[in-house]
Amino acid sequence: MPDPELPMLPDGTTLRWQYLEQGEYSAITIFAEVQDGRIQFQVEPRRPSGTTRDFDKLIRGDDGYAWDYPWEEWEWNDGEEWVPIKALREGNN
Fold first, then answer.
1. Close Cβ partners of 2 (under 8 Å, ≥ 6 residues apart)
2. Alpha carbons 57 and 69: distance in angstroms, whole number
3. How far apart, in whole angstroms, are the C-alpha atoms of residue 31 and residue 36?
4. Is residue 1 domain-resident?
5. E-assigned strands of 1-93?
6. Each residue of 4-34: pLDDT tens digit?
7. Which of 9, 18, 39, 83 might form a disulfide with 13, Cβ 3.0–4.6 angstroms?
8. Nearest to 55 by CA among 64, 63, 47
9. What pLDDT does residue 1 have?
10. How far apart, in whole angstroms, are the C-alpha atoms of residue 37 and residue 41?
11. What range defines the domain where residue 36 resides?
12. Residue at 26 is within a domain
């Protein structure tokens, strides 16, 4: 089941996630797109937390975390600025 916020964004919307690690990984930013209410990654739709986990495994290999990163860290661009995904939920309460 898609996260409730992602279906609010049209397919093709660019998302970004800034890596939470320090040191050599701190400058990494991940970009992806929304497709059918999920994040498209490696030809498969993923949830935000699963996508960041998979990117971490690719970046850090065996040192990557086995747990999910918070989905709230994903952002989308509204044409003027990057907005956290969680703002979509907050704006519809």
1. 36, 37, 38, 47
2. 12
3. 17
4. no
5. 14-18, 29-35, 38-41, 44-46, 75-77, 82-84
6. 678 888 999 999 888 766 677 777 888 888 8
7. 9
8. 64
9. 44
10. 13
11. 6-91
12. yes
What type of residue is 42? Q
The helix/strand/coil state of 36 is coil
Q: Across the beta sheet with 38-41, what order do the strands follow?
A: 44-46, 38-41, 29-35, 14-18, 75-77, 82-84
Residues in the chain, total:
93
* Residue 8, number of CB atoms within 10 A of its CB: 17
Number of domains into which the chain is organized: 1
Question: When comparing pLDDT for 1 and 83, which is higher?
Answer: 83
| 75 domain residue, yes or no | yes
